[in-house]
Specification:
It contains twelve helices and twelve strands. By secondary structure, the protein is an alpha/beta fold. The two termini are 24 Å apart.
Length: 292
């Protein structure tokens, strides 16, 4: 399904939720290699979200770019992993649900803080974007970015080379009076300007240390400087630590949907979930949106 038509035809577009935790719950390893090793389980996760009411699903290709894969020692073919992710999602989506190609960060820092150049990041993102586009995604999502320079590299790699919509989504560590701020110190309004200049068709906020209601402050910041539509994909509440210092999320679906409602009231028109969310959380969003 064409993503822009989906957005035009619906008052609100419902995205899916977390992928990694759902894969683990079904016995698969998190990450893009599951597209090769456990395609039936990836398919099951996609279908669970569609059954819960998702109009758009995101491919299981997060961070499957050359720089990240090399740094993490992931031995696999970039094109094959990304193509498989699209084919699995497309099979689950059919003709009525949009497939969004997922592009995450490289895991490296740009100079002068790190060692990567903008040109190197751009080329790495372009390799992944080309694989996703040629496999048939309806749009791209650049997500979980904390540096608007890296995010802009990814957005440009998609927007300049492929005739597809691009969602640019940042991750925020805290909120202040002026809006959300990433761990790199980049403010939401500045991020919106950088992403729009780079060619983003949509702005987004996903993951991070904010609860769903706090993400509404980010939405307000975006809408104060840009007319682009906004996607929110909060975590299921703020992260907590278990006895082994491992993060977990325990916000109930009803409370999650209430927080997302605050984001919609602030101007968001696309909504899904990130860490800790499940088909039940997406169902709660879908039901809430249907009632508005």
């Amino acid at each position: 399904m064409g993503f822009m038509k989906l957005v035009a035809d619906r008052r609100y577009v419902v995205f899916d939720g977390a992928m990694g935790t759902q894969l683990v719950a079904r016995g698969a390893k998190p990450g893009g290699m599951s597209n090769i090793e456990s395609p039936e389980i990836v398919t099951a996760v996609h279908r669970a979200y569609i059954e819960a009411g998702a109009n758009a699903i995101i491919t299981n290709t997060f961070c499957m770019n050359p720089i990240y894969m090399k740094a993490q020692g992931i031995n696999g073919d970039v094109t094959a992993i990304n193509r498989a992710g699209v084919e699995i999602a497309r099979k689950a989506a059919g003709d009525s649900v949009a497939v969004i190609g997922d592009i995450g960060p490289t895991g490296e820092m740009l100079k002068p803080v790190g060692t990567c150049t903008e040109e190197e990041m751009y080329e790495s993102f372009l390799v992944q974007a080309r694989a996703l586009a040629e496999a048939g995604v309806d749009a791209f999502i650049i997500e979980t970015m904390i540096d608007n320079r890296e995010a802009a590299c990814a957005v440009m790699a998609c927007a300049k080379n492929f005739n597809l919509p691009v969602i640019g989504s940042m991750t925020y560590a805290t909120v202040v009076r002026g809006g959300g701020i990433t761990t790199m110190g980049h403010k939401a309004a500045d991020n919106a300007a950088a992403l729009e200049k780079a060619g983003a068709s949509f702005l987004g906020s996903n993951c991070g240390d904010l609860d769903p209601a706090e993400v509404a402050v980010v939405v307000q910041s975006y809408k104060s400087v840009s007319s682009l539509p906004v996607l929110v994909e909060p975590n299921a509440g703020k992260p907590k630590l278990d006895d082994n210092d491992k993060a977990f999320y325990d916000m109930k679906p009803s409370d999650f949907a209430a927080g997302v409602r605050a984001c919609i009231d602030a101007g968001a028109t696309l909504a899904g979930g990130c860490c800790g969310t499940s088909p039940d959380h997406i169902r709660a969003i879908a039901e809430m949106c249907a009632a508005l």
